[in-house]
TrEMBL record:
Signal peptide: none annotated. This is tRNA-(Ms[2]io[6]A)-hydroxylase. One of its GO terms (biological process) is tRNA modification. It comes from Thorsellia anophelis DSM 18579. It comes from the Bacteria.
Amino acid sequence: MNTIPDKSVLEKMHIETQLKAVTQFLSCRTPDAWITTAILPENLEIILVDHLICELKAAQTASLLLRKYVLDDASGQHLLEHLAPYENYIYRQEGSLESLKALPSFTKSNLMARNNLAETMFTSPHKQVVTQVDNVDKLAKQLINDMVLLIKEELHHFIQVFDIMHERKITYQNLSAGRYAKRMMQGVRTHEPMTLVDKLICGAFIEARSCERFASLAPYVDDELSRFYLSLLRSESRHFKDYLSLAASLMGETQTNELGEYLTDSIDDRIQFFRQIEQEAILSEDSVLRFHSGVPVSYI
């Protein structure tokens, strides 16, 4: 006689199906000790607050890539102005959920109406990185399309997390930054275009780990929070793939000199390099609990 799996088993099977690409990309899953610690009521509040901060940081990262590599000054300023109210709340506790909800939606058409890429491509050493590929327009448009969508979605997620915190009467508190992103970025090379390639790969790992953490928490939190975390899997998984696709495009189309410079390391080599750093950050002990932190020190 066949046994019908209970709801939790079916849910976990569904999650694993959605996570397949993510788990193949990452070298390890979230340790049970982190999950056990994170779902404690007093700690889940910290996780939600840090999640709120992470959504802003993700939007800021994408914004920086756009401003540094493809946007002109006017468009870059417009992007900064759009992020400012969210930053003012996180860093200065200025504004409110209602004021952030009332902000106009960020769109690519609004941004691109201001941008004159052709006039700025050769005026900045960083923007010249994009001009080194065979199809400048294609890569620039890919970067703009992917990062604008990411910013829009991350800011929407910011509001969703803020809403959940508000409903649960969780007060925002300043949190010190975890070590995760810093450890990843320490491996970034300092010469272009490899700096950009490495930043894109780091972005892929951060988004992939975020996706995996949402899935890891979902079976153990209340229904409302579980549904919310599961709703984020598709976008977070796409974000990691977008970052990887951009890195591959840059590596695959970068022009080289007669010595073959810029092709000494393949993207696979760099993925493996950062995979090791990421694994060490996740599996080693950590003195603070954050959304991307390692094993809580009390469990070592």
